[in-house]
Amino acid sequence: MEILFLAHRAPFPPDRGDRIRSYNILNYLAKRAGVHLVAFVDDDSEVTPEHRALVDECVLIRRTKSQARAAVEALAQGKPVSLTAFADRRIAATVKDILARRPIDAIYAFSGQMAQYLPAMGPRAIMDFVDLDSAKFEAYADDSRGPMRWMMRREARLLAAHEGTVANRVAASLFVSAPEAALLPGSRAVENGIDTIFYDPQMTTPEKTRHPLIVFTGQMDYRPNVDAVIWFAQAVLPLLPDAHFAIVGRAPTSAVRALASASVTVTGEVADVRGWLAAADVVVAPLQLARGVQNKVLEAMAMARPVVASAAAAEGIDHAGTIRIAIDAKGYASTIKQLFADPAGASALGAAARRQVIARYGWDARLAPLNVLLGLSA
């Protein structure tokens, strides 16, 4: 069997939320079929020969279109910026070439931006939306003002129409969680997993730092992450005068870097996030806008850390009560103080979280539904 895998961002290295999902799906498919990967890439240096060897064919095309150009094209063409930003004749030509010369049995499109490359007629197509982007932009609009609010509402409206059209064309529409899938009728969830062998606290050396330590991990130029750490540092941390807050993740914006102080560390990119997770007395995920399953929460649970999260960050995860949910600044501070004051209880909570992840979120178990959807052998 041969599968064409389309991705809006090269699935390697698996060091951020979307790449973790796409990498593990790609790896799962490549063990069961011949895979032809076509993806955009921002930096060729991140792609190693070992990465390329995972698939039978690997075509990576550097993104060159600026956001400003994408916006102009979107306004002129009546399309969402999210689509024009990833509209590229080179990708279209590559897809057409592979479909012409290879007996492709199925197409797996990862992220809604890649749906524009699905042929009108052709092999069975699976659309992995991951999250419902239209809902995300609707939420952005609610927090925006003036022209930006208009732009966000336009994006949400056009994306919603695009998502509905695509869902009607493909054999199956997938999302990362059941709540997310429920937003688009006829869709289903194929949840994220976690590598509990890699994320094993017994195999990790904790970072040497100040305690008590609160840790947040994530891509730090991603707006929901930026908003979360700014809110936490300004609203919650002052209620915890003895605590130290570490913001761990690549590409921190200027607003995030400005948070650095005697009580806040902004690490930027780190070689291995596990050291910081292992050192954490508490891991927080205070996201107000969160779509699907948050890998940062699964990683902290796998590392047996006590987690305090927003309802939005916990919504897509079957945590079975092994993480704590907080709503406002006082709630976060009170919950974190309780965990600081009871190290044995915090440790037991973290251990229960790891057991839950091992039982519920192995990648092979989470991705098994793809066997039927794509006609793969187990």
UniProtKB/TrEMBL annotation:
Residue spans crossing the bilayer: none
Xref: NCBIfam families: stp1
Taxonomic source organism: Sphingomonas jeddahensis
GO terms assigned for molecular function: glycosyltransferase activity
Domain of life where this protein originates: Bacteria
UniProt entry keywords in alphabetical sequence: Transferase
Phylogenetic lineage: Bacteria, Pseudomonadati, Pseudomonadota, Alphaproteobacteria, Sphingomonadales
Protein's recorded name: Glycosyl transferases group 1
InterPro entries xrefs: Sugar_tfrase_PEP-CTERM_Stp1 (IPR017521)
Pfam families: Glyco_trans_1_4
